[in-house]
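pls design
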């Protein structure tokens, strides 16, 4: 098959303890992209096995390795790779051989013709365990219901982005789960296509049931930032007005009870507990939001990145 484009492709792949997969994955990428102009960017997220040594041992000029100084997680590993990428199209995939590089050319055709900005895979006949499929189905359902974006498989790591969209994603925390939603919010036109899915070749999965709770928390934060970041008064103002009205009604009620019926209101437990729960809940929520906004402001205003690269090698040689 003739290459669809002469443009540079950047294939960004986070790695964590993938010594048994990385050589075969590299071989499969080379086989699938014969004739294409591409670079493979591996981001080693502080692996504790021989992943780095095996990548550098390839001595392959198309293979770039970004070795992070500590374990930052998948989102920041992806962010590091995307920031480093030089390609006109940026491709993301997992390093466990469950994604199939042979799907890339067909997916690439949709972005090369300019019709779409993002192409994301829908895994067919998933080879994962039930304990991994259940959290994924719940997460996909929640994302569709809350965001109204009909993405059938948010968990598929195999995606292709135009350079402009990928560079504007601003990944942090655990936002790799919502990378397609982030692209949509940046104005990206999205295409979903069926892709192959394989059983993990080696190693163990890094995900469990706790993923559902992380998805819910991250989704709430993402929606708040996107909806209220430039107009927080629309959220906090409503809460404030409601609290003032409640307080006013309580005070009117207590004034009537005190003056009209002569009852003692100083020891009413309902008033005490109501105030404790309302004030305490608002404080906890707003402290969390304020801290997240402060972190974003710190990194973005100073153009800092929330990760540090220890070493970069190209073809096994330090650059």
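designed seq:
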């Amino acid at each position: 098959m003739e290459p669809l484009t002469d443009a540079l492709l950047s294939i960004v792949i986070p790695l964590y303890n993938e010594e048994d997969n990385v050589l075969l994955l590299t071989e499969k990428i080379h086989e699938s992209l014969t004739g294409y102009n591409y670079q493979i960017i591996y981001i080693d997220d502080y692996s504790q096995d021989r992943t780095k040594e095996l990548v550098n041992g390839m001595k392959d000029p198309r293979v770039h390795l970004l070795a992070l100084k500590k374990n930052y997680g998948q989102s920041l590993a992806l962010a590091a790779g995307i920031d480093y990428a030089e390609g006109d199209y940026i491709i993301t995939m997992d390093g466990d051989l469950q994604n199939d590089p042979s799907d890339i050319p067909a997916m690439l055709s949709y972005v090369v013709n300019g019709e779409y900005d993002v192409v994301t895979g829908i895994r067919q006949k998933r080879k994962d365990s039930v304990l991994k499929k259940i959290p994924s189905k719940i997460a996909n359902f929640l994302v569709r219901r809350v965001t109204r974006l009909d993405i059938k498989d948010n968990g598929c790591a195999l995606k292709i982005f135009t350079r402009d969209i990928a560079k504007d994603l601003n990944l942090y925390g655990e936002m790799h789960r919502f990378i397609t939603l982030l692209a949509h919010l940046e104005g990206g036109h999205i295409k979903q296509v069926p892709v192959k899915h394989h059983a993990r070749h080696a190693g163990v999965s890094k995900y469990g049931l706790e993923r559902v709770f992380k998805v819910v928390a991250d989704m709430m934060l993402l929606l708040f930032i996107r909806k209220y970041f430039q107009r927080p008064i629309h959220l906090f103002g409503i809460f404030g007005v409601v609290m003032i009205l409640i307080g006013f009604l309580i005070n009117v009620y207590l004034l009537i009870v005190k003056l009209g019926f002569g009852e003692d209101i100083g020891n009413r437990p309902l008033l005490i507990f109501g105030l404790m729960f309302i004030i305490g809940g608002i404080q906890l929520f707003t402290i969390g939001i304020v801290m997240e906004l402060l972190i974003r402001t710190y990194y973005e205003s100073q153009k800092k990145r929330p990760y540090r690269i220890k070493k970069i090698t190209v073809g096994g040689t330090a650059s």
